[in-house]
C-alpha cells in the first residue's frame, strides 16, 4: 500500500509550509492565487482525502449551505429565482461557502429533504425561498435550531427570524404613481387571489397609491392565478366593467403579457406595467418592477454567515427597494 | 461533556436497527419513507455529526457532483441551462447524489474552481457544460483522472470521454425542411461566427437541408455575435442582399427576436424560427427548436454514476434529438 498522504506530504510536494496547506483548505481566500493553485494541484495529484471531514472536525463547519431549485413552470417568472441562485452562489463563494441544491414539490416534501440533507451532509444552514403565512418549513428548522435565513418575509411574525425581502408594495405604488402622474386615474390591478403574503403586499402598494390620489380602488381590482391565459381573461373582464381602467399594474410579467394579448386582440393599447422585469419584459419592451436580486442574495449570505458566526445574535431583517424599469409599452 | 452520539444512539432513539440507520445514511432511497423520516429526525435531534466523513470512509464517495451556474447574460438563452440544472438536481437526487454549484467567469477560473472544490469537498465528479474546441477544462480533469461527463460534445475527439449532447444540426435541418415544405427556397440563416462547435453544428443542419432541396446556401448565410440587437442588424443586412431570404432560421431565440424587431419595423412579415424554445418564444408565439433538457440532464447523471461505479469502463456518448415547436409566427 502506498504511503499515507498527509498535510505534510502535500506541503512538501507544493514547497510550502503545513500552515499554508491548512490555510488553503480552511480559508482559501487568504492565500495568494498562485500558491493556492499550487497547493490545490498537489492535493488533487496526491489524492489527499478526507479534507472535508478533517476540516469539519477543526472548524465545526461543513461550509455548505442549501437552497431549493424551483420546478420549471411557465418559465417566465422562473428566471427570478434563477438570478437569485446565481447571486447566491457567487456571494457564498466569496465568503468561503458552497451552495448545494435540492428540489421539493411542496412544503412537506421540502421538510423531508431537510432531513435527508442534514443527516447526510451536515449542512451549515439553509436559504429558504418563497415564504407564506404559517410556513411549516421555518417552524421545523427553528424548532431544531438549524440556522436559516429566508428570502421572503415571515408574514405573520415579522421579527421571528432573519430574512431578506423586496418591498413589493413600494414597487407597485411607484408603478401606479407613475401612471397617475401621466394623467391616469382608473389604474386597474391584475393580481393574485387574496391570501398570499407576496400577492397581498403587491396589491397593497397599488391600493395605497390610488387612495393617495383620491381614487376608489375597489372596482379596479382583480384576483386570478398567475399565468398568461389568466391575465388575458381577467383583462377582458376588467375592460367590460362599468368604469374600465385606462392603465394596468400587474403582480407579474405573466399577467402583464396576458393583458397585452387581450389589448392587441381588441385593437386597443393601454399602458401596462409588469412585475419582476423578466427577460420576456426586456425583449418585448414591457415596463416592469425590477427586484434587486443580486443584492438580495448577497444579504442572505451575510445574514446566514452572521448567524453561523454568532448563533445567539438577534435575528436581522433587510427590506430592499425595487426599481421601476420604464420601457416603450408604458 | 454529553455522551458521544453514535449510530447505536440514533438506532435506539429511532427504535430501529443499526443497519437501518446505516442504510438511511448510505442509501436512503431503499428505506421506507416513514422509517427514513424517523431516523433522520433522530439524527437531527441528537445532533449526530461527521456522517459525511464516516460515510466517505466506508463508501469512498461524497455523493456530491458539481456543476457551474452560468452568469446571467441577456437572460433569454440563460433559461436553457437553468432548466438543465433543475433536471440535473432532480435526477441526481433520485440516484442518491446532490448537486453543488460553482461559478466561473472563464475556463481558466473554472479550472481554479475545480482545485478549490476538489481540495475542500472531495467531490465525486463534475458535469461540465458548454464544451468547445480544445477545451482546457476537460483536459485538466482527464489528466487527473477525475470523473466527469460533459453536456456538449468534445468537438475535436468525439470518443474522448463520456458526453450527452443535443443534435443541433438535426434541429436546424428540420426547421429549414419545414419552411421548404411550405414553399420557401431562399431560407436565410442567422448564425454565430464560424469556429464554435455549437454554432457550426446548427449552421450545418440548415446548409444540409438547403443543399438537399437544390438551393445554394452561400448567399443566405450570416455570422454575428448572439443578441437581439445583433439579430436585428444582421436581418437588415440580409434583406438588402441581391436575393433576400423569404424565411429565416436562427441559431438562437435572441437572434430570432432581433429579426422580428427588424421585420416589424420594416412593415413586413417573414416566417422566423428560433432555437432553444425559451419562455420568450412561448410568450410571443415564436416557433423554435426545443432541446430535451430534462432528458439530457438525466442521461448526464446516468453516465456519471456509471463512471463512478466502474471507473475503467469505456466512455459512453448520447446524442439526443431536439423537437421543432411550431407556433403562429412560422
From TrEMBL, chains A, B:
One protein family per Pfam: LacI
Matches recorded under InterPro entries: HTH_LacI (IPR000843), LacI/GalR-like_sensor (IPR046335), Lambda_DNA-bd_dom_sf (IPR010982), Peripla_BP_I (IPR028082)
Record flagged with keyword S-adenosyl-L-methionine: no
Keywords: DNA-binding, Transcription, Transcription regulation
Molecular-function GO terms, alphabetical: DNA-binding transcription factor activity; transcription cis-regulatory region binding
Entries under CDD domains matching the protein: HTH_LacI, PBP1_AglR_RafR-like
Annotated HTH lacI-type domain residues: 5-59
PANTHER family recorded: HTH-TYPE TRANSCRIPTIONAL REGULATOR GALS (PTHR30146:SF109), LACI-RELATED TRANSCRIPTIONAL REPRESSOR (PTHR30146)
Protein name: LacI family transcriptional regulator
Amino acid at each position: 500500500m502506498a504511503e499515507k498522504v498527509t498535510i505534510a506530504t502535500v506541503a512538501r510536494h507544493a514547497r510550502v509550509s503545513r500552515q499554508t496547506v491548512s490555510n488553503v483548505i480552511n480559508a482559501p481566500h487568504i492565500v495568494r492565487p498562485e500558491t493556492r493553485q499550487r497547493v490545490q494541484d498537489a492535493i488533487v495529484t496526491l489524492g489527499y482525502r478526507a479534507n472535508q471531514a478533517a476540516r469539519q472536525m477543526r472548524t465545526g463547519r461543513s461550509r455548505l449551505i442549501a437552497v431549493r431549485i424551483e420546478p420549471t413552470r411557465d418559465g417566465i417568472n422562473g428566471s427570478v429565482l434563477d438570478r437569485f441562485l446565481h447571486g447566491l452562489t457567487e456571494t457564498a463563494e466569496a465568503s468561503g461557502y458552497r451552495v448545494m441544491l435540492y428540489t421539493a414539490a411542496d412544503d412537506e416534501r421540502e421538510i423531508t429533504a431537510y432531513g435527508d440533507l442534514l443527516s447526510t451532509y451536515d449542512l451549515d444552514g439553509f436559504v429558504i425561498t418563497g415564504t407564506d403565512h404559517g410556513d411549516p418549513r421555518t417552524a421545523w428548522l427553528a424548532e431544531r435550531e438549524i440556522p436559516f435565513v429566508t428570502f421572503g418575509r415571515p408574514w405573520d411574525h415579522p421579527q421571528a427570524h432573519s430574512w431578506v425581502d423586496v418591498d413589493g408594495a413600494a414597487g407597485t405604488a411607484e408603478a401606479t404613481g407613475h401612471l397617475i402622474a401621466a394623467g391616469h386615474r382608473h389604474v386597474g390591478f391584475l393580481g393574485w387571489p387574496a391570501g398570499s403574503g407576496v400577492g397581498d403586499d403587491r396589491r397593497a402598494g397599488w391600493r395605497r397609491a390610488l387612495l393617495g390620489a383620491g381614487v376608489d380602488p375597489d372596482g379596479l381590482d382583480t384576483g386570478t392565478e398567475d399565468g398568461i391565459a389568466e391575465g388575458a381573461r381577467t383583462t377582458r373582464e376588467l375592460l367590460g366593467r362599468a368604469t374600465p381602467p385606462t392603465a394596468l399594474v400587474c403582480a407579474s410579467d405573466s399577467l402583464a403579457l396576458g393583458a397585452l394579448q387581450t389589448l392587441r386582440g381588441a385593437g386597443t393599447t393601454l399602458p401596462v406595467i409588469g412585475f419582476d422585469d423578466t427577460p420576456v419584459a426586456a425583449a418585448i419592451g414591457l415596463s416592469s418592477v425590477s427586484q434587486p436580486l443580486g443584492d438580495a442574495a448577497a444579504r442572505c449570505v451575510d445574514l446566514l454567515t452572521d448567524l453561523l458566526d454568532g448563533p445567539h445574535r438577534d435575528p436581522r431583517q433587510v427590506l430592499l427597494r425595487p426599481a421601476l424599469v420604464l420601457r416603450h409599452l408604458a
